[in-house]
Design brief:
This protein has 16 helices and 18 strands. The strands form 6 sheets. Strands 3, 4, 5, 6, 7, 8, 13 and 16 form an 8-stranded mixed sheet that branches. Strand 3 and strand 4 form a beta hairpin. The longest helix has 20 residues. The N terminus and C terminus are likely disordered. The chain binds adenosine-5'-triphosphate. This is non-specific serine/threonine protein kinase. Keywords: ATP-binding, Kinase, Nucleotide-binding, Transferase.
Length: 615
């Protein structure tokens, strides 16, 4: 499936080196150049990595199998993106600060865990590929993603496996939260099984491209980060742009419901094109969680889901999760099912994994769906600002003040003539043409995004395949920096949403006079022989918007219960799609139909020219 991405003229076709330099100024991301099999990349510690076949394409980069030269095991992967791209930058620095093998091992030891689904980085560096500077990280290789099985099973997983995955992800959350970060994008597509036959008992949470420091002080909605995540599972706090630990827990809960074969209300009601409506639907859902679950599962609400979601719904934005309590919930559920919490994870549905209760619930939901066919909603919405710029690592502020080695400026790339490696000539990505760009008016289009409305763009036949993507601008940690300056804002009430703005035409209805660019991405190249290949399909909508004045927040129904937010003198309305002061909206989105949802967007920030403190 091809990608769809925005692009600006500055980054237009060709001019490799020039384009790379220009990309620094542009708002666009480039797709990575293909790396030839057999290429040797040298990381900043002078470790060498031989590139094998591509095994997956993410929203922003490509993932290759890799091996140490002289070995032929390909038990690593290299994730590579153009140097200017934000997500890999974020991910790399998350790993550098928090997740080296020693950190992971220490956590395992401290918590008595035989294994932990936390990836780690074994190397990183920069390399010029076809004259364009790229960043790469090297990680252990994992196996198939859980989304593959979820889809093969007609959108469900065995119940016992759902609880085992929840338990494993809670461990990973505990690790990440312990580092002061949230993951913010847990989903089946980001959960990978271990690699190899003896590793099937453990699942790994990958993709730290949205990881950020969480908030425990004031609850301050951040319009620039609103709706970050994968819209299906984005937490209520993330809809407001606030990274919290309870948000991660909520995301897990939504996934769990879906893994059990139940369509989430905002998916069922086809609201995904409108983040504000999704947000409102989630607010309602969580505000009366027992009733909500009953309406989804019928009389067969799994006890563990009810208990877990009740717990999450009561968490404060600054609560550190009670991981042990949550673990107990799922351990008890496994006991009740007589389902072992050990051995290979069972991902294909078979008699033991089929749970009568959720089957019943799914049947009930299907019947209900026949009755209720919600109209497709392509209304206006606030999406989010993608704002990142990440050129030189040395310009980054590090919260924890740990020094980070600067990458060497050498070109760390050579190609071997290793006969053991089969020769594959990577497909070149077709160049884009101006007519691929769909222009939309920034004033009239409220950056709404709809899977189906954009489906046509994803057909490889219907579009050429440009190799450019949006670039994110901004500064890392600026939100932290600004925290002290901003007044805490209250979570607005669902009733405060204006979800049916009439001032903005719908995306589908105004394609030609709007200013956002929607482009096809290159055909995604994957090694077809592999069963654990994964890919991302994306649509990027990039809209510049006028600033609008802040309006007072409504007080009712806020699920943010902080004393600070309650006492806020300057509460501001933040979720009303027509009032949020977003200057630029940029959404990357996601396959439709049966695909697993992809991370739609990222907000990445970075401050420049700030000296790091020595450790
Ligand atoms: N360590 C790994 N081992 C094996 N496969 C991997 C590994 N990391 C990633 N992949 C594969 O590549 C796919 C994309 O990876 P990842 O999600 O990290 O990329 P991304 O560009 O951040 O994607 P997105 O942001 O769109 O979710 C994964 O779904 C997975 O199938």
């Amino acid at each position: 499936m091809p990608k769809v991405a925005t692009k600006k003229a500055a980054a237009a076709a060709g001019g490799a080196k020039k384009a790379a330099a220009g990309a620094k100024k542009s708002k666009l991301y480039n797709m990575p150049e293909k790396i030839k099999e057999g290429t040797i990349l040298t990381d900043m510690m002078k470790g060498e990595w031989k590139i094998g076949p591509s095994i997956g394409t993410g929203g922003f980069g490509e993932i290759y199998s890799a091996t140490k030269p002289g070995e032929n095991k390909y038990e690593y992967v290299v994730k590579c993106e153009p140097h200017d791209n934000g997500p890999l930058f974020v991910e790399m620095h998350f790993y550098m600060r928090n997740a080296k093998l020693d950190d992971v091992r220490r956590f395992q030891k401290d918590h008595g865990l035989k294994s932990l689904g936390m990836p780690y980085m074994v190397g990183n560096g920069s390399a010029e590929i076809n004259g364009i500077k790229h960043r790469f990280i090297v990680m252990p290789r994992y196996g198939s993603d859980v989304a593959k099985y979820f889809l093969e099973n007609n959108r469900r997983l065995p119940e016992g496996t759902c609880y085992r995955l929840a338990l494993q992800m809670l461990d990973v959350y505990e690790f990440i939260h312990g580092c002061g970060y949230v993951h913010a994008d847990l989903k089946a597509a980001n959960i990978l099984l271990g690699y190899g036959p003896k590793q099937q008992h453990q699942a790994y949470l990958v993709d730290f491209g949205l990881a950020s420091r969480f908030t425990t002080k004031d609850f301050k909605p951040d319009p620039k980060k609103m709706h970050n995540g994968t819209i299906d599972y984005t937490s209520r706090d993330a809809h407001l742009g606030v990274p919290t630990m309870r948000a991660d827990m909520e995301i897990l809960g939504y996934n769990l419901i879906e893994w059990l074969g139940i369509e989430l209300p905002w998916v069922r009601d086809k609201l995904l094109a409108n983040p504000s409506k999704v947000q409102k639907s989630k607010e309602e859902f969580m505000s009366k969680i027992s009733e909500s679950l009953k309406s989804l599962f019928g009389s067969a609400v799994p006890e563990a889901v009810l208990e877990y979601m009740k717990y999450v719904s009561k968490m404060e934005y600054n609560t550190t999760p009670d991981y042990e309590k949550c673990r107990k919930i799922f351990q008890n559920a496994l006991k009740a099912l007589k389902y072992p919490n050990s051995g290979d994870l069972e991902l294909k549905l078979k008699s033991r994994g089929e749970m009568p209760s959720t089957s019943k619930a799914k049947t009930a939901q299907t019947k209900a769906k026949v009755k209720k066919s919600a109209p497709v909603d392509v209304d206006d919405s606030e999406n989010e600002v993608i704002d990142a710029s990440d050129d030189d690592d040395g310009d980054v502020i590090y919260d924890n003040k740990r020094p980070i080695k600067k990458e060497p400026k050498t070109n760390n790339l050579k190609t071997t003539k290793d006969k053991s490696t089969p020769k594959v000539t990577p497909k070149r990505l077709p160049k884009s043409t101006p007519k691929d760009v769909l222009k939309m008016s920034p004033v009239t289009l409220n950056s709404s995004l709809k899977r189906k409305s954009l489906d046509v763009s994803r057909s490889p036949l219907s579009s050429p395949s440009p190799s450019k993507r949006t670039k994110l601008n901004g500064s890392i940690n600026s939100s932290a920096k600004n925290r002290s300056r901003r007044s805490p804002l209250k979570r607005p009430s669902p009733s405060g949403h204006n979800t049916s703005s009439t001032s903005s035409p719908r995306l589908r209805s105004t394609p030609m006079n709007a200013k956002a660019s929607i482009r096809m991405s290159p055909a995604i190249s994957m090694s077809s022989s592999r069963s654990d290949v994964s890919m991302d399909a994306n649509v990027i909508v990039n809209v510049k918007r006028k600033k609008k004045p802040l309006q007072p927040a409504t007080e009712e129904n806020s699920h943010t219960t902080s004393s600070s937010s309650k006492s806020t003198p300057l509460a501001a309305k933040t979720t009303n799609s027509s009032s949020t002061p977003v200057t630029r909206v940029n959404v990357r989105k996601v396959g439709g139909g049966d695909e697993s949802p992809r991370t739609p967007a990222v907000t990445v920030k970075k401050s420049r020219r700030v000296h790091r403190s020595p450790s």
